[in-house]
Structures
1.
Amino acid sequence: MRHVFCRKIVFLLAALLVVCGMSARKPIKTLLITGQNNHNWQVSHVVLKQILENSGRFSVDFAVSPEAGKDMSGFVLDFSPYELVVLDYNGDAWPEETNRRFLEYVQGGGGVVIYHAADNAFVNWPEYNKICALGGWENRDEKAGPYVYWSDGKLIKDSSAGVGGSHGKQHEYVLNARNHEHPIMKGLPNKWKHAQDELYDRMRGPGNIKDCLYTAYSDKETGGSGREEPLIFTVDYGNARIFHTMLGHAGETVENCPAMQCAGFQITLLRGAEWAATGKVTQKVPTDFPTEKQVSNRSNYKR
């Protein structure tokens, strides 16, 4: 009888461990906001969902806005069910109620991913610009805040007059690590080659970067600034965890999208998204991460 009782206890403990393990790996509930953009959002939002969900770590819902110029009053979003919000939006102003709810979510410690041209959005919304730290285009100039770039081992804030936001021709370029201790960065290489993409430069804004993770040199020969530009970083905004990646220009189709098919883009996005949602990164660095000399491609958006 005693042995039977012990076996039952062992069985119950094993079952409990399985349940706890399943609970620990429950997908991160994610809201991806899209629907208007000066980039090809019809491709980017599909690809982002594939990258996130193919990892097994995220479950993604879409919030698709009305078309540009249409009535936005009904675009009222509920952020409360979500652990993570991914912004793939650059378009008409949201309703005030959505703005209020979004700030409430972020200021309450919500996780946010700023993806590529989402940092172009809402030039006249000061809090949004603080959430991004840096932005570009949409008539940004010195009034938006200083230029921010990397020089002599640190970020420089430069209040010189001039336009905010530009990039040269798309090309492959090398990312340079600036922080090896952040959870997103543990195990990632010091340098890696990114696939053909835009390289944002001359970005301006409040400049409240918390952790500069990767920069890249914007070469004048490709139409760039001649400076080392911060492209992947976290943002200092209260208790929120905000991951900002300027990489990932959408291609013409899901099948022809080199910047987003780059394994380096996908892996840094996944690690940044998990950190933004949970404060931790549980993913191992896969063997197909790019090297300094070689781009690595994931054409089907999974390993």
2.
Amino acid sequence: MEALGMIETRGLVALIEAGDAAVKAANVRMVGWEKIGSGLVTVLFRGEVAACRAACDAAAAAAQKVGELVAVHVIPQPHPDLEGKLPISLPETLNRGKR
């Protein structure tokens, strides 16, 4: 199972900047993003633990340059139950076996 990296910002511009920095800094894939409310938005990444940590570090630095960074977190091994309940799966895993 791959690690899960999360970056939360206040505002979309900071989130886009963070997402761009993350995928350029490390071998991670963006799972998607969530609009939380009150201006908060979160972007989710999957990859190896070290790659997610590097991506989150780069994303946090980038977000702080253009906006407000709210939270950064990496879960090294998310529990499998989260996959079915939360939008943290990669698109190709969502469609497996559904053809």
